[in-house]
Amino acid sequence: MKRTRLRLRQTTQEFWFIPAVMTALALILAEAGISTEEAYGVPDGLSFVYSGGETGSRNLLSAIAGSSIGVAGTVFSITIAALSYAAGSMGPRLLDNFTRDRGNQLTLGTFIATFAFSLYTLRAVTGSQDQPFVPHYNVTFALVLAIASVAMLVYYLAHVTGSINITHVANLLRNDMRDSLMSATQKEDPNRDLAVAPPPAFWQGGEVLHAPSGGYLQLLDHDLLLGRADEANVALLLHVRPGDYVFPNSVIAVGVPRLPDGVMDALTLGDRRTVGQDLEYSVRQLAEVAARALSPGVNDPVTAIDVIDRFGDALCSLQDRRWPDGVYYQDHQLRLVVPVTDFDGLTNTMFNMIRQYGKGSPSVMLRMLEVFRTTASCLKDDERRAAIRRHARLVYEDALANTANSGDRADIEKRYRELLDTLANGQDAEVKAAAQHAVQQAQGNRVR
């Protein structure tokens, strides 16, 4: 069932889906309007309905059909240009965010539906002397669609320029990342029992499952795997997690004492990574935007700083949430162990690439240390604070090694010391520093 929902969601997000549905509906409405008028005619009281003759309706429908398909071609051209810009400046993996955009799909669908409706109606106009027929309802509705097309064109021009704005893209990716984080983590429960996985020796001698084909693991149905393992009264260890590339004939699961039936039914493989269970994919998309911004050809540290801020936002939202254990029991019997993303892995994906590409930019390094400091004041868990300390140390060392200016080096050392104070003293140091900063600002305002 989850696999079916995944495929259905992927299909409905395709760029062609909404235009195809709107075109089909337009053809159905055109036929319904023609049939209704043939059966009942047009009441005299409906003054708003088109009342022209055969020649006028033909000319009108031809003009609407020709102009709508012409503007649709222009919309296609603008879309391709926007996609080319996005692929060049923000990375080809972000193209899905533009093709999945409902505004782009609705605009294209409106023009194609107008063309299909007008063309289908045009074929019903007859000018014979014995039995002339003009589908007045349809001509009226075609006029409505033409006006709607003009409105959609104005909307689209504003929408497409906003959709390729880097801040807008960063916010979209931030929302995807936050949704994935909330789905992957759970509310902290101090009374819960910590599930512990058995040692590696437990799985020795178990039955091994080799991957029949290759591809990215897009979806893992935990409930189905847990149910199959419980029915077979076995323990199952999975070696892959969503986002991993599964190589053909590689070991992906071990069952003790044997494998349950239908393990592959719970694993959905595909040609590309998808947002959802693959938490690191959403993070990598944002990290790639920052890495491209820091490349010598672009040299845009402001965009990298925007991305760092979004990462800090995501980490602070994890204050009261925990990672799943990846260990599942049924009736006190071990049934399933799956690998999961942890806080260390998440921060590695967030900051390693940015640090490596931005080590020569003092402004980026300073902002990373500032975000680490704020994040350290939000997080209470010692392991997570240790991960922040480790990344801060890496940033500090790389920044000093690649910064020659004495003033910039002094700023980096100051930010690093403030971070260490926050890690050592908790929120008290952060509150004290904020108070001192406010006092300094007030004093500066009085001097001015």
From TrEMBL:
InterPro entries (alphabetical): DUF2254_membrane
One Pfam family here: DUF2254
TM stretches of this protein: 63-85, 106-125, 137-158
UniProt keywords, alphabetically: Membrane, Transmembrane, Transmembrane helix
Superkingdom of origin: Bacteria
Protein name (Swiss-Prot/TrEMBL): DUF2254 domain-containing protein
